[in-house]
């Protein structure tokens, strides 16, 4: 048994939650702020059998890994008309920090 | 020294908090949502000496284990009068998920 | 790699957050209540290399250790004029509870 602590961006948390359910992985969600990945993080506590750690890691990685995304910057109404302002820009989103901890005992009551 | 992470239903959290105090067990309470036990969970972080792990486990089990409870379903005002609607039904409440983690160092500053 | 779980008073949390940044230590902040240090706690999750555990511990200790502080009690407007009521009194503030946990795996995605 291992305890996985996964810290992801808020924007990836719902997707990850659903993916855990889909893979029959039981996770508990904590609200967090700041730190590893700027503000707006969610921490998941995930208990898995040793042989399912790699599977859980894939699920976390798939849902929350760092990737580039095109985003249209918000229009600045005070600015002079600027033809470049409506172009989408590439930004980095996502990212996860994950700890796998040894577990001495695990109980369901 | 061990770190116990106990995830219980919100409805059992106050009782468990009081029981910890009664047993002189120091616990920190985190708000959590969803996962192991549906939405509305509370996570406790509990630091205990090795020889008190079993005692702490009993306290957690007593306060939050799964049990049947009779509950009167809310009356549905839109429904036709139905003589069964006011009978109490048996529902499952409670339940705890508990991890006991090894600790390398423990400090009070 | 170690995972440090540090529980400090809310009033020390911002200072500790800044000190972590200053020392290039990445921490995630969880909101917590009650327990180890009365109500109003903040829990930090900190991932550090083994050789930086002592450094992180110093940072936590410096920002949040128990200390005496002089505080002027709030003026009681309903009370009779009392010359002692405006004298500052010494109160104990701060305090941290810290766990250092072994880590099997650590990943950034
Ligand atoms: Ni991808
Ligand atoms: Ni019982
Ligand atoms: Ni000092």
From TrEMBL, chains A, B, C:
It comes from the Bacteria. Gene3D superfamilies: 3.30.70.120. InterPro entries: CdAMP_rec, N-reg_PII-like_a/b, N-reg_PII/ATP_PRibTrfase_C. This is Aminotransferase class iv. It comes from Levilactobacillus senmaizukei DSM 21775 = NBRC 103853.
């Amino acid at each position: 048994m291992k305890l996985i602590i996964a810290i992801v961006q808020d924007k990836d948390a719902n997707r990850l939650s659903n993916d855990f359910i889909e893979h029959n992985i039981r996770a508990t969600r904590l609200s967090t702020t700041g730190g590893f990945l700027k503000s707006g993080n969610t921490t998941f506590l995930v208990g898995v059998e040793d042989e399912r750690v790699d599977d859980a890691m894939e699920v976390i990685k798939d849902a929350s890994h760092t990737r580039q995304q095109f985003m249209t910057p918000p229009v600045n109404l005070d600015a002079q008309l600027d033809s470049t302002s409506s172009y989408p820009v590439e930004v980095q989103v996502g990212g996860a920090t994950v700890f796998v901890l040894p577990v001495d005992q695990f109980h369901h009551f």
